Each structure stands twice: as structure tokens, then as C-alpha cells.
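User: Teach me something about this protein's shape.
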Amino acid sequence: MVSLMTDLSLTISDARCNPCCICGGKSSIVGLYIPYNQHSVDAPEGKTRMFLYTLCERCFNDDMSAPMVEYKVQKSFEARHN
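Assistant: First, the predicted structure itself:
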């Protein structure tokens, strides 16, 4: 468990360098998106796929950020796996 937490911590640190996934601006927030429908992201049986994303303060405070993140993560996943 300790190694998983260390790996996740390093991944979050790396993610902070990415731009906001909605507007492309300087990010200040790292989020974790866990799709409700795991079959839509080809998760193996008994496993859960999770996606790190980054947002700027403005997009984080926008009421439409959650559906936009969901849409962008899904489209990004589809583009990489089609």
C-alpha cells in the first residue's frame, strides 16, 4: 500500500505541470475522475480506472466544469484507444 501511495503522490506532482484540461490555462488544482460506467473505459473485471486531470481556479469554480471534465476525459480515452 505504501508504494501505491508514493506512486500516486509522484503522479499528482507530475500532473500539476499540466495545463487546465478545459481552457489550457495554468492549472492549480488536480482532480481524480472515476467513471461510473467502468465498461466505457475498458476496465478489466474487478478493476477501476481512474483519471487525473488538472483545472485552473476559474474553471474549477465554473458550474459546468464537472460535465466538461467528464466529456474531455472520455474523448481523450476514446482517441487513445481507437
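Now, about its shape. The first strand starts at residue 29 and ends at 33. The CA atoms of residues 19 and 26 lie 5 Å apart. If you'd like, I can walk through any region in more detail.
User: That's plenty for now, thanks!
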